[in-house]
Give the backbone structure.
Amino acid sequence: MLIVMDKEATPAQIEVVVDKIGALGYLAQPMPGGERVAIAVLKNPGPVDPALFLDLPGVMQAIPVTRAYKLVSREVQREDTLISLPGLELGRGRFVVMAGPCAVESEVQALTIAARVKAAGARIFRGGAFKPRTSPYSNQGLGKAGLKILKKVRDETGLLIITEAVDGDSLKLVSEYADIVQLGARNMQNFSLLRRAGRCGKPVLLKRGMNATLEEWLMAAEYIMSEGNSQIILCERGIRAIGEHVRNLLDLAMVPVVHRETHLPIVVDPSHAAGRRDLVPPLARAAVAAGCDGLLIEVHHEPEKAISDGAQSLYPDQFAALMQEIQALRPGGWK
Ligand code: PEP
Ligand code: MN
């Protein structure tokens, strides 16, 4: 249930509604909008009768929310969420490209790639310091030393930083260093991590789990938002594919479906879907044409030496060429 207050509703009238929701044993989450306040009713086990609220002074509407996800749903918030980053916005028509290596390997590697992706138009540098690897014997990343390299990239280039947190400890560190905290496909249903990310104080990029349905994905976002963090970017990165022709199957239908179902922005990661670099530009172009709010792309200047995901990393020149193609596809280009 979403209770929409009159434009002229007073704080006291809002409080009466909040108290009534509490007295019924539910949780009230007031959401101040541009013109009026809406109050979401949460933790109700079943449907709530709108008549309970319609008579209260200052209440304009009581709208049943039919979806399992509430705070993230379009029913609760019609207007697109805008992600506010230092000197940069994403969503609500603002398109942003994030690019960089799969993993931070060294200062020279990170700074070299950062300079190239910046020159091509990327605004955010990606690079994992904590890597969730399928094998415990694979390189797990540089950890805190990697975060310090990312800080240097930020200081020297002005690019913002996105990097992954894999558990509670790394989340604490990552939220100190990064502008956006990435939660990876393998952690999409790590509910304690989602809750902590909801309290981390930084925007979160939530990748779709490799077998996740739309509802499971949006419920994961709901976990983050229910802790008070509405700065969430969804990221489609492909789901399990049949056959060997791609690493994962990029589900581009998610772009318009996500825009219909939620006010949160969606970016697309064609790299982890493709698994090989020749497929990355066509998938990226298709994602842009489908209406995504940004791209997350792996780029490496020496992909043959990369410690992870070299095969799907674009050479810097290929990335620059792709950025030009995107300019032509989007009326506003990239920012
Ligand atoms: C990554 O972005 O490097 C990554 C590990 O991605 P995913 O979680 O989508 O596999
Ligand atoms: Mn990778």
